[in-house]
Amino acid sequence: MGVLKRFEQRLEGFVNGTFAKVFKSEVQPVEIAGALQRECDNNATIWNRDRTVVPNDFVVELSTPDFDRLSPYSVQLGEELAGMVKDYAKQQRYTFMGGIKVHLEKADDLDTGLYRVRSRTLASSESQQPQNQQQDQQQDQQQSPPPQLKQHEPPRAAAPYRPSGPPPMPAGPPPGGRAGGPAPVTRLPGGGSPPGGPSGGAVRRWIEINGNRHQISRPTLVLGRSTEADVRVDDPGVSRRHCEIRVGSPSVVQDLGSTNGIVVDGQHTQRATLRDGSRIVVGSTTIVYRQAEG
Q1: Residue 267: beta bridge partners?
Q2: Taking 50 as the threshold, does the pLDDT of residue 224 lie above it?
Q3: For the residues 174-188, what does the mean pLDDT come to?
């Protein structure tokens, strides 16, 4: 059973089912859980062959309406989300520098249904800094504040943050490929269908699912649980014909009326523009879209 599925089942027994009401809000706890998993992947730092360190302090920024819905349960939800991160890290063989914390915060610049995740790596003790340096930091309030965390971007190399890079991929992109990351949260435009065919064959496109690479060699690529789908995704949370990728300039992903919908770069949507490194979540499966000039 997947980590996200176990997380959902644990929530069902909380506070006599009060989370069932929370689930009706546009931002659902399972979406936040998926975003925390991606935050770990995007900020994993390889220390050596046996140790990969990921962030352990997370802040989830919510719009005012969604924060008002979830804040009465912030303590229980934070504990459950922290437990989910721990389970996921164990599954991926990640390690932490300290205890795991998940906090909810209100962000006035976000619309209902949108959210951001910030993260950092905090050591369990401050013994790594000289004691006199700690005292100077406490006394000198004129020092520059620590750098603000950037959503889905590697933290800058300043204490107490640890430098991090893009997640280690099972197989790197072909020569000329570029590592990409999800864009900052914003509303994705709708509109008509993009061009259906590849842009003159100059750009190679593929997707990566659970370490397996699937080349995109046709104008549309259907993903789903059915054996008739172009790429089969064996996940109980995925519909028979869940979504399709339409190749163009730019390429887009379109929900095909699935039961659970799609989440693209942290946003629940029906249609989204894709860029190199975009992450599409269907059920509990993450699909990474890749493209590179040939």
Answers
A1: 264
A2: yes
A3: 41
